[in-house]
Structure formats: structure tokens, C-alpha cells
Design a protein that fits this description.
Elements (H helix, E strand, L loop, with lengths): L10 H4 L14 E4 L6 E4 L1 H12 L7 H13 L6 H19 L1
Amino acid sequence: MKITRTSEPTRADRTQPSAGGVSRSGGSATQPAAAGGGSVQQSQQSGRLNQLEAQFPQSSFDAAKVSEVRSAIAEGRYQVNAGAVADKLLESAAQLAGRKA
């Protein structure tokens, strides 16, 4: 596995409309475009996503730890703890099963 990207695109980068002047998600709310007289469609799900992103702050990460893991992978000294991965997988599956019940 190769890790090359160091940061995620900003929120503004992710929400820019495509070249056609309309966002990918067709919705019912219309907002005027900044230039060109076209319009941008925003779905209800997109609006809800914006609300959730504002409600929950972006998670922070330890850049030094990421750098160390990247170096360990590149040097072939990174060890995967299979037991910990299995435990987390089972915990996740149990939570998902609990939500559906």
C-alpha cells in the first residue's frame, strides 16, 4: 500500500459544481450561481451533510505519528497486530448488528 496524499481537499474544493454548472446530486433546492447566470442544484441530503459537518468538528490527527507509520511501511518494519484488527472488526460488526435489531 502506498500513502501519498498528505491532506484532504478543503470543504470548498469538495463542493464546487462540475463544469456543467450543476452539482452531481440532483435536488429540489436551487441556488443562484456566482457567474454565468446558471443555477446549482443542492439535494436535501447535501444540506443535511452540511449541517452535520458544522455540528461535528473535523477530527485532528497526529502528523508525527502519520509520518512515523509512513516511514515504517516504507522501510518494511511496520507490524500489523492481527488480534487487535480482529477485535475491532468483531466490535464493529456487533455494533452494526445491534443497530439493525
